[in-house]
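Here is the promised in-class demo. Please do not try to memorize the tokens; focus on the logic of going from shape to residues.
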């Protein structure tokens, strides 16, 4: 298992959102996305779409974190 708990990610397109949601659904731990004061389930495409995606959002993942999820999410990690 890979260990990380919180990071910023950027989901720029609807395809990014769909791909991220599919990745999150394969993870056994909770996946929470937070933008400003709103937090949603990262496994819910409707929840993700309700966030302000014009800027990076905080990703919080509860353990266990699958290696597949940890590796797949790397392309969304934001430097901002």
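The designed amino acids, position by position:
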């Amino acid at each position: 298992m890979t260990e990380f708990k919180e990071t910023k990610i950027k989901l720029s397109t609807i395809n990014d959102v769909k791909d991220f949601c599919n990745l999150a659904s394969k993870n056994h731990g909770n996946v929470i996305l937070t933008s400003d004061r709103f937090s949603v389930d990262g496994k819910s495409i409707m929840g993700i779409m309700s966030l302000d995606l014009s800027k990076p959002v905080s990703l919080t993942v509860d353990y266990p974190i699958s290696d597949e999820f940890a590796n797949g999410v790397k392309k969304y990690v934001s430097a901002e």
